[in-house]
Amino acid sequence: MTGTLVADPSSSLAGRRVHVKVPATSANLGPGFDTLGLALAQYDELDVAVADTAGVQVEVHGVGAGEVPLDESHLVVRSIAHAFARAGVPLPGLSLVAHNTIPHGRGLGSSGAAIVAGVVAAKGLLDGIVEFTSDELLELATELEGHPDNVAPALFGGLTIAWVTPDGPRHKKLIVHRGVSPLVLVPEHEMSTALARSLQPESVPHEDAVFNVSRSALLIAALIQSPELLFQATEDKLHQHYRAGAMPETDRLLRELRSAGHPAVVSGAGPSILVLASDPSERADAVARAEAAADTAWQALPLAVDFLGATVQPA
Ligand code: HSE
Question: Which residues form the GHMP kinase N-terminal domain (predicted)?
């Protein structure tokens, strides 16, 4: 983080206003637990302005309206406050208007998107006063999210590999093969990430670890170069079966899709399913199978890969 000498940052912030756009994400992608993530072209958008008075005013439209808190505990506000604290600049009064489309509690990175929205809003508001590097933005977001696999693609777009070093999280962004057409199947009910994580064992058999190392290495090749390998590359033994009992509808449809040869995985901690389809008929067949499921209703979202990641502009 680098700062520019500004006599009174608080008065330099007066009147500043930014517009932020953040994509949905799908993490894990099968074998890449807590490591791989994909940005998807469905967005939350926010307008954040420095207010004349202290405190925060929050307005939420779309997903989460009437459900999420409208005070300092709103996740975007917490994330802005986290970045200002790291920058050493007192948090000014803020007004925030959110237009959300990313479903909550469905494994599509809504909390990661809110955190990233806050971090990039802070970057935009502090432009010319404090500059954040990409690694610093990823570190701030990961500190709040707990793991980097959703926040990396939300920040940077495309397919991301994220890993943690003693100096903080790092990422590598890759461009997905244009033949890959993601399809997300979203059930009616939610799943808590905390519950899903509580179902993970402390340790796993060595052979399962080797299995996932091979598949996640293969998955990178499949996603950027060889989509015909996606079915084998999306196999997993580290998380999905441990969590299956907590989301039986997801487990049933996932098994059916994979039995039919689809490269289907649980999206993030679930309960949505991500199908990494590579032709339109494959996508149509997966949608038909979801529509025929008797145990819950599935919403089918054919979503392009987002290549930009989060954007912030003066408004
Ligand atoms: N890697 C995370 C998990 C993604 O599966 O628990 C959800 O935050």
Answer: 75-158
Distance 146 CA to ligand 1 centre (A): 9
How far is it, in rounded angstroms, from Cα 124 to Cα 131? 9
pLDDT at 8: 73
- pLDDT tens, residue by residue, 200-224: 999 999 999 999 999 999 999 999 9
Report the C-alpha gap between 272 and 191 in whole angstroms. 9
Per-residue model confidence (pLDDT) at position 5: 63
Cα–Cα distance for residue pair 286/274, rounded to 1 Å: 10
Asked if residues 191 and 247 have their Cβ atoms less than 8 Å apart, the reply is yes
When pLDDT is cut at 50, 70 and 90, the band that residue 7 belongs to is low
pLDDT in tens, 226-249: 999 999 999 999 999 999 999 999
Which mutation among 110, 149, 191 tests ligand 1's pocket best, with the greatest number of atoms within 8 A of CB?
A: 149
Q: Which residues contact 173 (CB under 8 A, 6 or more apart)?
A: 152, 156, 157, 158, 159, 160
Domain presence at residue 203: yes
Candidate of 25, 26, 28 to mutate for ligand 1, largest count of ligand atoms within 8 Å of Cβ: 28
Which residue segment(s) compose the domain that 148 sits in? Answer: 9-173+306-314
- Does some domain include residue 160? yes
pTM: 0.96
What CATH number is attached to the domain comprising 297?
A: 3.30.70.890
Q: For strands 181-187 and 273-277, give the pairing.
A: antiparallel
Residue 261, in any domain of the structure: yes
Give me the number of domains the chain comprises: 2
Q: What is the pLDDT of residue 280?
A: 86
Dist CA 172 CA 174 (whole Å): 7
Residues 143 and 231 in one domain: no
* 4 falls within a domain: no
Residues 52 and 185 in one domain: no
